[in-house]
# Entry
Amino acid sequence: MPTSRPLPWVVRVLWAALPFTTGTVLAHAMSSWSAAPRDVASVGLWLGWAGVLVGTLVPRPSGLTALRVAAPAVLGAVVAALVTHHSGVASRVLAPAWAVATSAVALAPETAVVFVNGTAYPDERRFPLRAPGPLLLGPLPLAWAIVAGGAAAGPLLLADRRWVPGALALLLLPASAVLARSLHELARRWVVFVPAGVVLHDPLALADPVLFRRQLVEALGPAPATAGDALDLTQRALGLALELRLRDDHELAVARPRARGRRSETVHARRLLFTPTRPGAVVAEARARGYAAP
# Structure
């Protein structure tokens, strides 16, 4: 979309400038540390910065996950550094302002559109889906904290010769890896417009991606206030839900969580509800491709 063309460069500039805008505050906060943990932290910060920068240069869903984990972590580190150490007036203003701007852009729905379309074919258009509502109330922030802190806590504590807490912190690494994969799954949920029709790709709601062929789609647009007999695939996400109305019943394998994992259940539906992060853009794309309004 035209509005997204400069956005990748905005993300790159914000992230690339972090060492120059927040580095002084972080370096000043670490100046009182002993040499070993300070060196470990410095190497980790530079490696993390370089890795995310590469992800912004070549947008991919994996780069979106890394950016959305790292950007709020930088903001948290800057706030902690400012609370515990005094810095110059310029640094105290510029560093948090730049970190806030970077986090805001990283979490913006438009940024997700850019990254998930990095691996799309030229004739398809992907629109991310909103995260399930219940995850926003605690599980998602907790998972982010474990992923962001789990990779740093162990090495820093061991470098500071705190052997027992450092060893215990290393036990978070497997959990961090599992949770990082779960966070990445959230970045791989989208509705896709392709020449043949519309695809719903949502591993949380569907066992497999489903293609609804163009001739089968009757309408696509904002969902009515009453869902009726529609199949709800929104995962109780916050925001405006859209309705995909079909001309006939369609068989779907719906993912159902169980105590011992997930299994699928075959259902038939003619109306489906889903919640994209940018419903207006999805409706505009649908109209541009000739899909009627409900």
Remarks:
- The chain has three domains: 1-127, 129-188, 190-288.
- The chain is about 50% helix and 20% strand.
